[in-house]
Amino acid sequence: MKYWRRPLDADHCRSPHGIVHIIINRCKGCGFCINYCPKQVLEFSRHFNRKGYHPPVVVKPEACVDCGLCGAICPEFAIWSTPNPECILDEPAEAKPA
Amino acid sequence: MSELLTTPAPGGPVVEEERHPHEPFLRMDRIPHIWCSTCGLGTVLNCYITAIQRSSVPRADHTIVSGIGCTGRAAGYVKIDSFHTTHGRALPFATGLKLANPRLKVTVFSGDGDLVAIGGNHLIHAARRNMDMTVICVNNFNYAMTGGQFGPTTPEGAKLTTAPYGSYEHPFNIPFLVDSCGATYVARWTSLHVREMIETLVEALNHRGFSFVEVISPCPTVYARRNRLGTGLDLLKYYHDSAEVRHGADTRDVDISFKGRIIVGRFVQRCKPTYLDTMDAALGRSVGKEFVCYEGPMQASDGRS
Fold first, then answer.
1. Would you call B47 exposed, middle or buried from its count of C-beta atoms within 10 A (0-12, 13-18, 19+)?
2. Residue-wise over B228-245: b if at least 16 C-beta within 10 A, else e?
3. Residues β-bridged to residue A58
4. Which of A36, B167, B173, B257 has the greatest number of C-beta atoms within 10 Å?
5. Per-residue pLDDT tens listing for chain B (305 residues)
6. Long-range residue pairs from B246-253, CB within 8 A, at least 24 positions apart, any chain
7. Which helix (H) or strand (E) holds B195?
8. Is ipTM over 0.90?
């Protein structure tokens, strides 16, 4: 993740990382999660689900910060994220020196 | 085309068997719900389920009552004690529920046509009495389930089935209505403001008194289509552009015009004795020392405290 300055708690905090879970056949293809994901993790799939909608597909799994917005905005209870305890992606916040 | 239908989508942990964390709170035999693609009602229900998990009230004490309409379906989808009442009568039913068992946290989850139009009289009197309950009013500006007739919340100029040249009536400003009737917690969000909505719903559920949360929600199939506003996603973008957060705003200024700005936020939060408080106080004065505070007929009849 890019920071415009070095965070004050950078020595002991790391940005979280999440795993996105999608139930593709429950999705109605509204695109809320795709449009409002702050990290642009999702995109419309080329494929159809059983209902004939295009469900989201994870295109940048490494960018997910487990903010939970996709899970909160989904009207169909078809997408959510869980924290990924194993994988910590960022080196703690190496921002540009001021 | 057949290749697109049969092959699984590539990339990403797409999992079929896993269960959504809200599934313990949903009647899964009724899911998927009937709400249209890009409708905002599912989002509001999703936020409500998060809020009941975060509220200080135990799950067994939560009850949900709803009336008729698209939003009225919500009571059938939530796996807590729920009741789907007749049109407009969600509030009187909820009032009776609260009086029968005052320990319950009663939530009314219904639409604008149910609460403000046919149930308008019940709304103002529930607010006036400061009944201890939470009302979630999902406002989509029309009667969506019956085909898009205009109602008391339709903004002036919006076209609908029964207003093909545009509605010419002055709409209700719902936060002002309930505020002036005596509601003690009034807030408004749109279905885009999910985090704020969850916070507000938790506050409203923990609030003692009549708490009212209006949620502006897109209706892609009727309201947006008749007015050529695009899909629900386009309406969320409109909310993003034109919503203005103003906590503590004077509710007289928060009326909504067609394609105009939407003022959102927590408008009113105050303390006032609830209906049961005033009843206990008044009867206590009349009866004197022998008066026992009202705990509902069930507790009184079986003799347990």
1. buried
2. ebbbbbebbebbeeebee
3. A42
4. B167
5. 444 554 455 555 554 468 999 999 999 999 899 999 999 999 999 999 999 999 999 999 999 999 999 999 999 999 999 999 999 999 999 999 999 999 999 999 999 999 999 999 999 999 999 999 999 999 999 999 999 999 999 999 999 999 999 999 999 999 999 999 999 999 999 999 999 999 999 999 999 999 999 999 999 999 999 999 999 999 999 999 999 999 999 999 999 999 999 999 999 999 999 999 999 999 999 998 888 888 776 554 444 44
6. B251/B173, B251/B175, B251/B176, B251/B179, B251/B180, B251/B186, B252/B173, B252/B176
7. helix B194-206
8. no
Structure tokens at B191: 């279905």
Q: A48 CB near a chain B CB, below 8 Å? A: yes
Interface residue of B17, B30, B43 to substitute, partner A, most A CBs within 10 Å: B43
> Is A33 part of the contact surface with chain B (CB cutoff 8 Å)?
no
Q: Is the pTM of this model over 0.80?
A: yes
Q: Is B9 on the interface with A (CB under 8 A)?
A: yes
What gap in Å lies between CA B198 and CA B180, rounded to an integer?
Answer: 25
Q: Give the gap in angstroms from C-alpha B233 to the nearest C-alpha of chain A.
A: 7
- Hey, are the CB atoms on B9 and A29 less than 8 Å from each other? no
Instruction: Give the C-alpha separation, B197 to B5, whole Å.
Output: 37
Question: What's the number of CA atoms in the CB half-sphere (13 Å) around residue B146?
Answer: 15
Domains of chain A: residue spans and CATH = 18-83 (3.30.70.20)
Domains of chain B as residue ranges with CATH: 25-271 (3.40.50.970), 273-305 (no CATH)
Interface contact flag, B42 A48, Cβ < 8 Å: no
